[in-house]
Design brief:
- There is one protein chain.
- The chain is α/β, with parallel strands linked by helices and 721 residues long.
- The chain has 5 domains: 71 residues, PriA, 3(prime) DNA-binding domain (GIY-YIG endonuclease), CATH 3.40.1440.60; 62 residues; 184 residues, P-loop containing nucleotide triphosphate hydrolases (Rossmann fold); 180 residues, Rossmann fold (3-Layer(aba) Sandwich), CATH 3.40.50; 87 residues, Alpha-Beta Plaits, CATH 3.30.70.
- 29% of the residues lie in helices and 23% in strands.
- Strand 1 and strand 2 form a beta hairpin.
- The longest helix is centred in the N-terminal third of the chain and has 16 residues.
């Protein structure tokens, strides 16, 4: 091979040909540096027949500069990258970039210097130094990362280094991770669990593609089942990937993993320090990383010898990425397992309808765990009709729910209240003139957060302190909160149960592994009586003394333009209901609603999941919605509203006229302004027979737009805002 074709990470130039210098050898998948004009670019050596490009004469080819000291991307990974680019109508270099993980890791081993508190008492303690010392207890990182943690300038920290308050520590970048022991603490499984575990272990041994749907009720011990497959993969020196939908779930999972295997797994998520990402990535590519637990981005890592993939809480919407490459990690995990010829386990108590249909069709192998482990029973579910049992004026909790909480408090048991709405109130306005606080970057209201004293946008992150007077009419002390958030519910609990110890659990309060650990420890030690939380508490947690769950507003998820609203509501409420009665004591769930006749609410009350899914399937079938039809969205955005509107009209005006494809729109997006960009949407509803991606590519390819316009395609959309 004297010429090579590179996939480079420049969207304008995805494919370039180069000459291979004499004495330099490369394999397909190799990472190399190559010249591009006066610059150097990173590229991946790819099979030329699989990436179309113009043939350049040999005489014009420039030589490859160097081969980077990392193993090549495997053939299964390259096929996965190609598949994702094709299926999700995304630039192939954008997909490939997700496999890089850490640019710093591409240069081989070495050491770096990190800093930590030395224990020295400072001779001069400024307010900035005091704040930094409070924030950096137990932390060790680079100066830049420590500055971000502490919220001070790098100059302050460098001054602390000079004063001996911070000390340098030399760290080996490639120090090995401790090895997991598959036989460290083997559990005693029930008969049903053992049967499921045996199926998984056999599939790992056989090293062939088998997609499993592990459908078990909450508390049935799904994790213990697939841990046996993890143990078998470790015995065979194969790597395991476990995908979790949220970082907040990792703390509980890590504890259970360490109890089973003697060490913690390797983590991969966006909150890792740069040095941690670098170390983890190099351990993954070398094969030294045995078990990787991570968010969806861990799916594209270049594993050396993958033997098993597990997708826990596989129904979760957060597995779908809504910017950049808009992929669904649940579906891509199955495809990666197919290319790697390994088993994949999708575990959930409330599987997605798409997964259940694939199981029914025989594509997935379904494994059922219908009973809770250890004789625990599923909680009793009751409906609180807010039309008949209205809360007191100015309150949000029905008298029956308050009374049940009071009984639990008297018995020393715990309660959980679920409301999927962060902050104190979703809307703040002036009681004098009616002025509403709106985000300047988004078409959304600012949400009041009293715990942190701020008004915040949950879409772009814009924050302002609450003003002392109305910006419109200048009336002082006139702001009024409208509607409840979890902070307001927590205040109400403190009023009706003044002796109760209340914890607010949201992504705002549990924003680090340390805080998650503190919350779990406090709940397990019964230092919390009432937990008030958002969807972050609906899954993964096991508190034996928690015997009551109250759903404050079950109708909330049914509002808006979400075409999967009923299914999402069922999943969320069923998952949070599953937190009750997981120990020896029986549990009870009270669901507050104004629509008890709604199919989803009736199914929850009856505990009849199958009936709900059957009704939902019939409704989807009639509408040719997934999994019986296909959806795709085209999102057009620009900082100039006229540009966005004109581009959307151009796309809508050239829509294909096909019998099996229906195009709705263009129309302003429900969130028509997001992060300073005006947005329009088109929704495509196609029959399963339609070659949807080919239709979209042929439709959009000839169109030209203004420079500031972005057009993105979302295959199988989950967000409709």
């Amino acid at each position: 091979m004297t010429r090579v074709r590179l996939l480079v990470f420049n969207p304008a130039l995805p494919v370039l040909d180069y000459r291979l210098p004499a004495g330099m050898a490369v394999e397909f998948g190799q990472l190399v540096m190559a010249p591009l004009g006066p610059r150097q670019v990173l590229g991946i050596v790819w099979e030329p027949e699989r990436l179309g490009g113009d043939e350049v004469p040999e005489s014009k080819l420039r030589p490859i500069l160097e081969v980077l000291p990392v193993p090549p991307f495997s053939t299964p990974l390259r096929r996965l990258i190609e598949w994702c680019a094709d299926y999700y109508v995304a630039p192939i270099n954008a997909v490939a970039r997700m496999a890089l993980g850490s640019m710093a890791a591409l240069r081989g081993g070495g050491t770096t210097t990190e800093y930590r508190l030395s224990g020295e008492e400072p001779k001069r303690l400024t307010p900035q130094r005091a704040a930094a010392m409070d924030a950096l207890h137990g932390e060790q990182a680079s100066i830049r990362e420590l500055a971000e943690y502490a919220g001070v300038s790098e100059g302050v920290l460098r001054g602390m280094v000079g004063a001996g308050i911070l000390e340098p520590v030399t760290v080996d970048l490639d120090r090995p991770y401790p090895q997991a022991r598959p036989d460290f603490a083997q559990p005693k499984l029930s008969e049903a669990q053992q049967a499921a575990a045996d199926r998984f272990v056999s599939a790992v041994k056989e090293r062939k593609f088998v997609p499993f749907l592990l459908d078990g009720v909450t508390g049935s011990g799904k994790t213990e089942c697939y841990f046996e497959a993890v143990a078998e993969a470790i015995r065979e020196n194969r790597q395991v990937l476990v995908l979790l939908p949220e970082i907040a779930l990792t703390e509980n999972f890590l504890r259970r993993f360490e109890a089973r295997f003697g060490v913690a797994p390797i983590l991969w998520h966006s909150s890792l320090k740069q040095s941690e990402r670098r170390r983890a990535w190099r351990a993954i590519v070398s094969g030294q990383a045995q078990v990787v637990v991570g968010a969806r981005s861990a799916l594209f890592m270049p594993y050396r010898q993958l033997g098993l993939i597990v997708v826990d809480e596989a129904h979760e919407v957060s597995f779908k990425q809504d910017d950049g490459v808009r992929y669904n990690a649940r579906d891509v995990a199955v495809i990666r397992a197919r290319f790697e010829s390994i088993p994949v386990i999708l575990a959930s108590a409330t599987p997605a309808l798409e997964s259940l249909q694939l199981a029914e069709a025989g594509v997935y192998t379904k494994i059922d765990l219908p009973d809770r482990f250890g004789g625990a029973t599923l909680p009793d579910v009751s409906i609180v009709d807010l039309r008949k049992e209205a809360p007191e004026r100015g309150r949000w909790l029905a008298p029956r729910l308050v009374e049940e909480m009071r009984e639990r408090l008297a018995r020393g048991e715990q309660s959980l209240l679920f409301l999927n709405r962060r902050g104190y109130a979703p809307l703040t306005l002036c009681r004098h003139c009616g002025y509403r606080f709106q985000c300047p970057n988004c078409s959304a209201w600012l949400v009041e957060h009293r715990l942190s004293r701020r008004l915040a946008c949950h879409h772009c992150g814009h924050e302002v302190p609450p003003p002392e007077a109305c910006p419109e009419c200048q009336t002082p002390d006139c702001l009024v909160a409208c509607g409840p958030g979890v902070e307001r519910i927590a205040d109400e609990v403190s009023e009706v149960l003044p002796d109760a110890r209340v914890a607010v659990v949201t992504s705002d309060t549990l924003n680090s592994p340390e805080k998650i650990s503190e919350f779990v420890a406090a709940a397990e030690e019964k230092l919390i009586d009432v937990i008030v939380g958002t969807q972050i508490v609906t899954k993964g947690y096991h508190f034996p003394e928690l015997t009551l769950v109250g759903v404050v507003d079950a109708d909330l998820g049914l509002e808006g333009g979400d075409l999967r609203a009923a299914e999402r509501t069922y999943q969320q409420v069923a998952q949070v209901a599953g937190r009750a009665g997981r120990g020896e004591k029986p549990g009870e769930v009270l669901i507050q609603t104004r629509h008890p006749e709604a199919a989803v609410i009736a199914a929850l009350a009856a505990g009849d999941r199958d009936a709900f899914y059957e009704a939902e399937a019939e409704a989807r079938k009639d509408a040719f919605a997934p999994p019986f039809g296909r959806w795709a969205a085209i999102i057009v955005s620009s900082e100039d509203e006229a540009e966005a509107r004109d581009a959307a009209r151009t796309i809508g005006g050239t829509r294909p006229d096909l019998p099996d494809v229906m195009v709705l729109g263009p129309a302003p997006a429900p969130l028509s302004l997001l992060r300073g960009r005006y947005r329009y949407r088109l929704l495509i509803n196609a029959r399963r027979s339609a070659k949807l991606q080919d239709v979209i590519r042929a439709w959009l390819a000839p169109l030209q737009f203004a420079q500031g316009v972005r057009v993105s395609v979302d295959i199988d959309p989950y967000s409709f805002v």
